[in-house]
Each structure stands twice: as C-alpha cells, then as structure tokens.
Amino acid sequence: MSYCVHCGVELDATASFCPLCHTPVLDPAQPVDTVGPKYFPTQRGEVPPVAKQELALLITSMLASVAVCCGILNVFLRPNEGWSLYVIGAAAMLWLWLVPPLLARGMHLLLRLLVDILAVALYVYLIALNLNGRTWFLGLAAPIILWGGAVLLLLGLVLRVYRRSLLSTLTILLGSIGVFLLGVEFFVDRWLYHMWDPSWSLVVLTVCLGLVIPLIVIRRVPSLREEVRRRFHL
Question: Label partner for 30 (CA 20 to 30 A): which of 41, 89, 121, 218?
C-alpha cells in the first residue's frame, strides 16, 4: 500500500500517477504493476441514449394495449355502458401529448399547443358522446377549452421573453390563472343563466393581483430582488 507524496491519497498498485492530483508515482521499493488490471477504467464509456422512435413505439404500444383491452372488456362486461370510452379517450389524449413532441423536438409552440387542445377536446367529446351531452360540449366545454388554449398560448409567448427570471415567470403565471378563471365563470354564467354575473372569479382575480403586485415591486427594486433570491435560494 502506498500513498501520494503530494496529496496523501491511497494509490493502487497499478497507478503510475495520482488519480487526484496527477503527481507521478516514483517508488523504487514498489514498482508500478503493469500486468494487473487497472483499478480505474482506462476508456470513457457512456450509456447510449434511447432512440426516440423506439420510445415512441413503446408508449404507443402501451397506450394502445390498454385501450384495446378495455374496449374488449366493455363488450363482454356491461355492453350497454360505454365506460371504455373514458379509457380510450385518456389513452388518445396521452398519446397526442407525448408522442408527437417526442418525435418532433423542434415543433412550433403554436402547433404543439394546437395538438394539446385537440387532445383535450377529443377526450371531453368522447365523454359527451357517452353521456349524450353534445349540447353542453358545444355550448360550454368547447369554449372553455379554447379559452384555456388561448391563455396558454399567450403565457407561452410571454414566458419566452422572461424565461430566465423565476420572479417574472411566477408573476405571469399567477396573472394567467386569474384571467383564465374569470373566463371560466363567464362561459358558465352564459350557459346557465344567459348573463354574466361575476362573483367568485373576481375574488380569485383579486387574490392573484394581490400576489402579483408585490412580485412586480420586488422585481423592480434590485435590493429587494437580491434579498428574495438569497432568502429563498432562487
């Protein structure tokens, strides 16, 4: 057993230099073992990444098998109830969320958001078909889904500009939540009462604004911004 004369780390018999400080090993009483296997690997190895096509095929096969099995079970168990539509719709929605972005990493934000909205709309439409509720889908669910997609699109475009600031991201996210819920109450009131009488959404929007204003002040004042980053390790 020998040790490095510079840093004192324990050396293997096959080491010709210190693995820590790279000091040459010169020990006349114990020459370097050039025959035995090296203690450390001599070649750098990396785990090969999984091919995107193979991963997409795996996800597709898993979701398809779940959908097909539930569809077959629905035929033999309670065939008058279309409960398998919920599972099939969820599988289709997950496939649209996962596989196209995986195969097309450079997909444009607008196209990716359009695919996500269509996936959610398809799932909700299958639920409406099972419940004989095409009317509420067209009059209530579809407008809310489109409104959520518009808010997400605006959120994504704005976050591209402020993506390096966590405070800016949190500020924009809170404001978007308040605006989205305000629109949700608008569509619900128009569907149920044919008029808009905002109540709970204004409370949520007020709370969001109450949180957004201090965040804006903190971001604008450098001393406060640095103090928050130091306190919360941002």
Answer: 41
Side-chain-side CA neighbours of 165 within 13 Å: the count stands at 19
pTM of this prediction exceeds 0.85: no
Cα of first residue to Cα of last residue in the chain, in angstroms, is 46
135-138: long-range pairs with CB below 8 Å, 24+: 136/191
**Type and span of the H or E element at 108:** none
DSSP letter, residue 16: S
Separation between Cα atoms, residue 53 and residue 191, nearest integer Å: 44
Q: Do residues 68 and 88 make contact, with C-beta atoms less than 8 angstroms apart? A: no
Token pair of 121 as six digits: 């709309």
Q: What is the pLDDT of residues 133-182, one digit of tens each?
A: 788 888 899 999 999 999 988 888 887 776 567 777 888 889 899 999 99
Looking at residue 15, its amino acid is: A
Spell out the alpha helix ranges (H) of the chain.
52-76, 84-103, 109-130, 134-136, 142-161, 166-192, 200-220, 222-232
